[in-house]
């Protein structure tokens, strides 16, 4: 069936998302913290209303001092000063108030949004992370969340402040003198237009500067990462020249930004002073005509200066809001992805009916695995948009895989890069959805296993090593229940680490198992990292072990020791091991040779080896040349030089 | 015990497992004279911009201070004009014109000093960045690998930007605001001493509050930055390792930790807000007190007639303009300090010693290497990676390679093959013994010119971003002759075009394609000695043959060293040596070594015979 969506319903959905849902994140948080918004905005209104008083006080003071030459004015002046002081006092309380309430609301909104996004990430499945890069997700969690927070905090604040001013100040101005008010307010409406235009320009150029900055960063990190090559070929000057070129481009971009940014606030100041000039030109005449008092003229000066801010603020608020809507849209779009791997409804109850013992955390399956007509291709990256017709069929990674593995068996999987062996192993713990064909564990379809129980059973060790930057012990303990007490926890770590043949090396470190391994484990060697991941998988005592070429950096002897150790245990795991090395493959109960997603050969080592033209034979012959060299050369020279050494 | 600052709060329930993410950066509270001198040294080459910028700061400050005074004069003029209607029009319009002029000058000079300081900062930054990278390039490989590349990149990018901020926003903002404050104070005193004293009575208190504020703010910023970076580090790590998190059923636990750090960050942000929300009202209140005093005393004076009304109006504005700059200064002081912290970090990098020991350079003028004949001699070379308590990787290694000879090297992992190459490329210096080329100790050559003459092709090929062609030429001029060969090879390896951009550092290129790039680089470099370190072991045989043939053709007559584990690769070599645990145990041609019946012969038997027996027995027991 083609995933053709009804074009009409698709449009309706888009329309709904574009127009109605867009600002819902912002609205939602405002609603959630509405109480604080009410308090905050009330404080703000108080501050703004009081802000109208000082010019009037000044007006009175001026008029008193002019009109009452010789008479005793100290009483009136004292009253004015007192009022002014009281106004400041209330204002400062108000300022404290709106900050505490509004900014707090915005900080909590930002926290909630990040938390929600984090929760979403933790519930997303592997295909989501294949599609979205780390940088993109981090940018959503930081920059975009911050943009939304800004709209809720400074955005609302600026907008409300601007609106109050915008209404209140002209009212007072018209009260004082309609004529002057009308004329001095002429240049004012131009300001928001100007601000929006400038903000847009600044934003564009700012983005360019940021790009330039990351170019510099990329170039420098490349030079340092490839320093061996750069030095070996004596290309220091060449790389330096490149960086300098990028740097000069960055300088140009930064100066371009600086030109608009530097132009912005002086030009606003200048617009304000145009208002002042208009005031002098018009108001001057009116003063001399005795149409208004000197005090009124002075008060107008203050009001004209005060009108610039709301105009600027409206422009800023619009910009903040626009960015926030775009960010909120980005976040919502990403969060609209549903995980393609999740528990079916009621799966736990059904599972516990079948396996009542599974309630116990220590319960382990027998470890029988069956792949039945399994096909797999990675979930369509373009899903959701019905418009991409005729897009290439997704590449099929696994084709018709059928295989039964008995409990306790070791199966080696052999195949070139791209043969599908990694994918096959990653399906066991359901990193990706199994939809075409089935996988059974203990005769139960893995889709009918609760994810948590399934993943506790399967110890999957990926080819790509990932360690957390915490201590060795915490890394190994990763799969243990937090409730397990210290002693058994230590015990489990110890056992696993010994099995992974890394116990002595770790104990030898200065801080032993408390050693922090650094980002992604950089402080350990490649082989140590791999063995820690093996230990990590073993510590949770899985019944099925799936190791994806995770011993490549470990030397042959150690690898053999680890693998032999695994077999020697009383409770054997079922093991699936993707590997290259002869020894690994040879000792397996069965070998599967994959090519381009199909099982090409299946059997014991002896069976497959006897097929002289088979893939298995050819592959191993290549491999052996290298291993023979290592094996022979590792021996002391003297013995080898003796005649008849064979 | 550290005193708890206003802006920071000890996070509740802080636990060990999150400590790894909570690295607190130390930021300076004072400026060391050494650092200051260094920074001034950086500026000294931009004297022109600095002088222009500073001049304009004075101009804009003067204009800023003039504006209220002009408005005051206008008021006075208007008062006079009310009684004498004959001169009113002229005077008022003249003042309006002057006001306009002042405003134009002010806007222009505000723009000007911002822009000139930006140029200054950008120029300093550009030069410093180049110097820093050049220095990093000259450092020993071991010094580089000791530090994480991410941290070094931060030096080149963020720290240098922060030094730029020091000029463009830090210094400029502080300086101009200080000028405005002092200017206002001076003008106030000039206008009327009594009023000035009244207005400034609360000012010292406020300065003290500002200093306090600045310190609190710094702590709060620091706290919030460290919590944010902890949040980012934890989230980024979990995104990268999400498969592991989910496979180990840790989602819930890790999410609860993330959410804990998230709350800490919100608390830290609140801390910053709290500092601001106390400081801002304090300024409002203080300015309220000042202005009330001005209104009362100024009004009295004006009523008495001892000052003009215009002065009262002007004072009102000056007093208001005293307070807001304090906030700016207190805020920007932190940028200023963090600029110096960055400067110190950058200085630290500069103090790391480079590869070329300067003392060595003074002894002898280094020779510039010209194309060698290519006679290489190792004489009793001992080498260990550890200086103290040496574990010898090469032991008393002596070997002579004739010019134009082809040497093959065989050995197990850790036998010392790559070390040999590293020594030849002068990535390391032997503890004992000498290496000579054409009879000259290689240490005597100028390093870069020497390295140009040694061409190394390794198994791992590092690709830079850009096109394949750029990766091959690495800045060399185009050579159609070589390009002809390369085009052929590219086609064979499946590369359709040389001018395609590489994505993600060429992760989509096959081993063979990467090797073609690596080979192309050497072809353009035209070195005297060609070194192949397991270069073709991962390539299919057809392409390998093709590459090999082309290389021989272009490197004809040069000295060749090939390291391989498949003996077929080096069968044709003039001399083959076998390395074992740092010792050369066999030497000779393919046939000589076969006759010798040692390790080489042993290996050869396995690698050619197919090794049925090998597989039926345990390899290690042979």
Number of helices of chain B: 21
Structural class per helix/strand content of chain A? alpha/beta
**Overall geometric form of chain B:** elongated
Q: Strand tally of chain B, please?
A: 10
Summarize the SSE layout with pairings:
The complex is a heterodimer of chains A (about 650) and B (about 625).
Chain A: H1 7-20, H2 24-32, H3 34-51, H4 53-67, H5 74-123, H6 126-131, H7 134-176, H8 178-184, H9 190-225, H10 227-232, H11 236-288, H12 294-335, H13 347-354, E1 369-377, E2 396-405, E3 410-414, H14 421-427, E4 436-441, E5 444-445, H15 451-457, E6 458-461, H16 472-476, H17 486-499, H18 503-508, H19 526-539, E7 544-548, H20 556-568, E8 574-578, H21 582-586, E9 590-595, E10 598-603, H22 605-610, H23 615-633, H24 637-641
Parallel strand pairs in A: 3-8, 3-9, 6-7, 7-8
Antiparallel strand pairs in A: 1-2, 1-4, 4-5, 9-10
Chain B: H1 33-44, H2 47-83, H3 88-138, H4 141-146, H5 149-191, H6 193-200, H7 203-240, H8 242-247, H9 251-304, H10 309-350, H11 358-363, E1 376-383, E2 394-401, E3 406-411, H12 417-424, E4 432-437, E5 440-441, H13 447-452, E6 454-458, H14 468-473, H15 480-493, H16 511-525, E7 529-533, H17 541-554, E8 559-563, H18 567-570, E9 575-580, E10 583-588, H19 590-596, H20 599-609, H21 612-616
Parallel strand pairs in B: 3-8, 3-9, 6-7, 7-8
Antiparallel strand pairs in B: 1-2, 1-4, 4-5, 9-10
Structure description:
The complex is a heterodimer of chains A (646) and B (622). Chain A has 646 residues and is an alpha/beta fold. Chain A has helices at 7-20, 24-32, 34-51, 53-67, 74-123, 126-131, 134-176, 178-184, 190-225, 227-232, 236-288, 294-335, 347-354, 421-427, 451-457, 472-476, 486-499, 503-508, 526-539, 556-568, 582-586, 605-610, 615-633, 637-641, and strands spanning 369-377, 396-405, 410-414, 436-441, 444-445, 458-461, 544-548, 574-578, 590-595, 598-603. Chain A folds into three domains: 17-177 and 311-339, ABC transporter transmembrane region fold (Up-down Bundle); 194-291; 359-381 and 393-612, Rossmann fold (3-Layer(aba) Sandwich). In chain A, the strands form two sheets. Chain A has a six-stranded mixed sheet with strand order 6-7-8-3-9-10, with helices on both faces. The longest helix of chain A has 53 residues, at 236-288. Mean pLDDT of chain A is 83; it is low at 1-12, 15-20, 381-392 and 638-646. Chain B folds into two domains: 29-350, ABC transporter type 1, transmembrane domain (ABC transporter transmembrane region fold); 376-588, P-loop containing nucleotide triphosphate hydrolases (Rossmann fold, 3-Layer(aba) Sandwich), CATH 3.40.50. In chain B, the strands form two sheets. A six-stranded mixed sheet of chain B has the order 6-7-8-3-9-10, sandwiched between helices. Chain B is elongated and about 125 Å long. In chain B, a hairpin with a 2-residue loop joins β4 and β5. At the A-B interface, α4, α5, α7, α9 and α10 of A face α2, α3, α5, α7 and α8 of B.
């Amino acid at each position: 069936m083609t995933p053709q969506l009804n074009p009409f319903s698709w449009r309706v959905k888009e329309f709904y998302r574009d127009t109605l849902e867009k600002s819902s994140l912002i609205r939602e948080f405002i609603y959630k913290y509405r109480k604080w918004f009410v308090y905050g905005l009330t404080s703000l209104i108080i501050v703004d209303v009081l802000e109208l008083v000082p010019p009037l006080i000044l007006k009175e003071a001026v008029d008193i001092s002019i009109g009452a030459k010789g008479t005793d004015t100290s009483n009136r002046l004292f009253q004015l000063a007192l009022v002014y002081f009281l106004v400041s006092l209330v204002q400062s309380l108000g300022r404290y108030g709106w900050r505490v309430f509004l900014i707090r609301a915005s900080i909590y909104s930002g926290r909630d949004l990040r938390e929600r996004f984090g929760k979403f990430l933790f519930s997303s499945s592997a295909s989501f992370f294949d599609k979205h890069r780390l940088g993109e997700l981090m940018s959503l969690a930081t920059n975009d969340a911050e943009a939304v927070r800004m709209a809720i905090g400074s955005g609302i604040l600026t907008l409300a402040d601007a609106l109050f001013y915008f209404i209140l100040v002209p009212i007072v101005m018209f009260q004082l003198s309609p004529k002057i008010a009308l004329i001095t307010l002429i240049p004012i409406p131009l300001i928001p237009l100007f601000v929006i235009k400038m903000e847009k320009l600044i934003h564009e150029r700012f983005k360019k500067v940021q790009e330039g900055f990351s170019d510099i960063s990329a170039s420098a990190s490349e030079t340092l990462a490839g320093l061996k090559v750069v030095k070996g070929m004596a290309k220091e000057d060449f790389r330096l020249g490149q960086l300098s070129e990028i740097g000069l481009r960055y300088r140009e971009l930064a100066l371009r930004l600086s030109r608009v940014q530097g132009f912005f606030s002086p030009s606003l100041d200048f617009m304000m002073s145009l208002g002042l000039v208009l005031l002098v030109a018009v108001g001057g005449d009116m003063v001399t005509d005795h149409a208004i008092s000197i005090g009124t003229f002075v008060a107008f000066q203050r009001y004209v200066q005060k009108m610039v801010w709301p105009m600027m603020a409206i422009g800023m608020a619009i910009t903040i809001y626009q960015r926030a809507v775009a960010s909120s849209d980005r976040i919502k779009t990403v969060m609209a992805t549903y995980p393609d791997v999740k528990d079916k409804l009621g799966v736990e109850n059904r599972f516990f009916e079948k396996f009542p013992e599974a309630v116990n955390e220590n319960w382990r399956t027998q470890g029988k695995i069956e792949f039945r007509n399994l096909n797999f291709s990675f979930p369509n990256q373009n899903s959701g948009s019905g418009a991409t017709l005729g897009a290439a069929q997704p590449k099929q990674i696994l084709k018709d895989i059928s295989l039964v593995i008995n409990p306790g068996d070791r199966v080696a999987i052999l195949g070139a890069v791209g043969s599908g062996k990694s994918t096959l192993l990653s399906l066991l713990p359901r990193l990706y959805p199994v939809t075409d064909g089935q996988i059974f564990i203990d005769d139960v379809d893995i889709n009918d296993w609760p994810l948590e129980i399934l993943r506790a059973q399967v110890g999957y060790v990926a080819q790509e090593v990932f360690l957390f930057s915490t201590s060795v012990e915490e890394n190994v303990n990763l799969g243990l229940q937090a409730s397990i007490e210290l002693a058994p926890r230590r015990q489990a770590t110890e056992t696993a680490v010994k099995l992974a043949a890394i116990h002595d090396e770790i104990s030898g470190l200065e801080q032993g198992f408390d050693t922090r391994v650094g980002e992604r484990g950089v402080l350990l060697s490649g082989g140590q990292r791999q063995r820690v991941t093996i230990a990590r998988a073993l510590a949770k005592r899985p019944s099925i072990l799936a190791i994806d070429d995770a011993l490549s950096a470990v030397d042959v002897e150690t690898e053999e020791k680890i693998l032999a150790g695994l077999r020697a245990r009383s409770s054997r795991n079922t093991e699936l091991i993707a590997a290259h090395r002869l020894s690994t493959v040879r000792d397996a109960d069965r070998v599967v040779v994959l090519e381009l997603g199909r099982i090409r050969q299946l059997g014991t080592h002896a069976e497959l080896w006897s097929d002289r033209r088979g893939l298995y034979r050819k592959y191993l012959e290549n491999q052996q040349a290298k291993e023979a060299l290592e094996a022979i050369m590792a021996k002391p020279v003297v013995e080898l030089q003796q005649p008849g050494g064979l | 015990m550290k005193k708890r600052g206003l802006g920071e709060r000890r996070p509740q329930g802080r636990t060990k497992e999150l400590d790894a993410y909570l690295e607190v950066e130390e930021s300076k509270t004072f400026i060391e004279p050494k650092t200051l001198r260094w920074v001034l040294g950086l500026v000294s080459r931009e004297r022109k911009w600095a002088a222009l910028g500073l001049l304009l700061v004075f101009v804009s400050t003067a204009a800023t201070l003039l504006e209220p005074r002009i408005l005051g004069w206008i008021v006075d003029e208007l008062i006079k004009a009310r009684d004498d209607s004959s001169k009113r029009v002229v005077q008022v319009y003249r003042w309006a014109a002057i006001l306009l002029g002042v405003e134009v000058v002010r806007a222009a000079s505000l723009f000007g000093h911002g822009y000139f300081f930006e140029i200054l900062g950008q120029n300093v930054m550009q030069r410093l960045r180049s110097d820093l990278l050049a220095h990093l390039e000259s450092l020993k490989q071991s010094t580089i690998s000791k530090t994480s590349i991410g941290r070094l990149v931060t030096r080149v990018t963020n720290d240098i930007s922060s030094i730029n901020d020091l000029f463009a926003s830090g210094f400029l903002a502080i300086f101009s605001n200080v000028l405005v404050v002092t200017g206002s104070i001076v003008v106030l005193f000039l206008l009327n001493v009594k009023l000035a004293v009244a207005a400034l009575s609360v000012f010292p208190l406020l300065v003290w509050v500002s200093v306090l504020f600045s310190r609190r703010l710094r702590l709060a910023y620091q706290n919030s930055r460290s919590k944010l970076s902890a949040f980012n580090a934890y989230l980024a790590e979990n995104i990268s390792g999400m498969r592991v998190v989910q496979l180990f059923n840790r989602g819930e636990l890790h999410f609860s930790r993330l959410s804990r750090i998230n709350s800490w960050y919100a608390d830290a942000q609140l801390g910053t807000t709290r500092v601001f929300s106390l400081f801002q009202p304090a300024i409002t209140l203080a300015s309220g007190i000042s202005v009330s005093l001005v209104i009362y005393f100024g009004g009295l004076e004006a009523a008495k007639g001892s000052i003009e009304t215009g002065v009262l109006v002007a004072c009102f504005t000056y007093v208001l303009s005293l307070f807001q700059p304090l906030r700016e200064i207190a805020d920007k002081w932190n940028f200023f300090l963090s600029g110096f912290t960055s400067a110190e970090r950058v200085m630290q990098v500069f103090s790391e010693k480079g590869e070329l020991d300067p003392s060595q350079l003074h002894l002898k003028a280094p020779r510039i290497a010209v194309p060698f004949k290519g006679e290489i001699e190792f004489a009793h070379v001992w080498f260990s990676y550890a200086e103290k308590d040496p574990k010898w990787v090469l032991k008393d290694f002596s070997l002579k390679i004739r010019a134009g000879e082809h040497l093959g090297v065989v050995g197990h992992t850790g036998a010392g093959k790559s070390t040999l190459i590293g020594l030849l490329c002068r990535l390391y210096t032997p503890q004992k013994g000498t290496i000579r080329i054409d009879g000259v100790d290689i240490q005597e050559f100028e390093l870069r010119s020497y390295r140009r003459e040694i061409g190394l092709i390794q198994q791992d090929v590092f690709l830079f971003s850009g096109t394949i062609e750029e990766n091959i030429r690495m800045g060399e001029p185009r050579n159609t002759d070589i390009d002809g060969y390369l085009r052929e090879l590219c086609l064979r390896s499946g590369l359709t075009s040389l001018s395609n951009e590489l994505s993600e550092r060429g992760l989509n290129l096959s081993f063979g394609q990467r090797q073609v790039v690596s080979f192309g680089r050497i072809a353009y470099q035209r070195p005297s000695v060609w070194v192949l370190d397991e270069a073709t072991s991962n390539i299919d045989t057809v392409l390998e043959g093709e590459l090999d043939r082309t290389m021989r053709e272009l490197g004809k007559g040069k000295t060749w060293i090939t390291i391989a584990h498949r003996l077929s690769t080096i069968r044709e070599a003039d001399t083959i040596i076998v390395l074992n645990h740092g010792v050369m145990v066999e030497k000779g041609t393919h046939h000589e070594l076969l006759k010798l019946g040692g390790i080489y012969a042993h290996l050869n038997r396995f690698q050619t015979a197919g090794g049925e027996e090998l597989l039926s027995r345990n390899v290690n027991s042979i």
